[in-house]
Specification:
By secondary structure, the protein is of the alpha/beta class. The chain has one domain: 3-Layer(aba) Sandwich (Rossmann fold). It is about 40% helix and about 20% strand. The chain has helices at about 15-25, 25-30, 45-55, 70-80, 105-110, 130-135, 170-195; strands spanning about 1-10, 35-40, 55-60, 90-95, 115, 140-145, 155-165. Helix 6 packs across helix 7.
């Protein structure tokens, strides 16, 4: 079985979309894959409640309990790898995990670490992407699924979804429109990568 570990920090709507797609499309049968665990750096992350309701193992590892980013990432790697009998899951999926990862962490999961970013990369890396797209006068915005590298929001692009920026949009209305596309695109990109592993 190809085990997937999903990392979240909040509501986990993209995580939920992946889990629901995995169930509906019977990934266990069609891809030999399952979501083995959901790990959060925040105990109050609402996505944990959803995962628990689906019978998925959950864990909290609070980054504030560590003296350095390196120490947190080392502990996180140990928790992730413990979720797989072979000692390393097929994929680690970032779904609203609001931590910048160290190069050692990224190297450990090279080629198997995915993220979704709410812009059409390479435009608008980092935070406040929707506000920045509106301020720049963009006619289109969107989201990008990419493999994670040590450089923030710069890994190989696996999928993109495009939405129009409407005349009356603010960052919240645009974010909502982009998020609906993320929920469709991210599970497809995960499934496509799993089919190649």
């Amino acid at each position: 079985m190809k085990n997937i570990v999903i990392l979240i920090s909040g509501g986990g709507s993209n995580m939920a979309a992946i889990v629901q797609t995995a169930v509906c499309e019977r990934w266990a049968d069609t891809l030999g894959a399952r979501v083995a665990a959901v790990i959060s750096n925040k105990a109050q992350a609402q996505g944990l409640v959803f995962a628990q309701g689906q019978g998925i193992a959950t864990e909290v590892l609070d980054h504030r309990n560590f003296d350095s980013r390196e120490a947190f990432d080392a502990a996180l790697m140990a928790r992730i790898d413990a979720q797989d009998p072979q000692g390393r899951p097929a994929l680690v999926v970032l779904a609203g995990f609001m931590r910048i990862l160290t190069p050692a962490f990224v190297d450990h999961y090279a080629g198997r670490l995915l993220n979704i970013h709410p812009s059409l990369l390479p435009a608008f890396t980092g935070l406040h992407t929707h506000r920045r797209a509106i301020e720049a006068g963009c006619k289109f915005a969107g989201a990008t699924v990419h493999q994670v590298t040590a450089e923030l929001d710069h890994g190989p692009i696996l999928a993109q979804a495009v939405v129009p920026v409407l005349p009356n949009d603010d960052e919240h209305t645009l974010a909502a429109r982009v998020l609906t596309q993320e929920h469709q695109m991210y599970p497809r990109a995960v499934a496509e990568l799993l089919s190649k592993i």
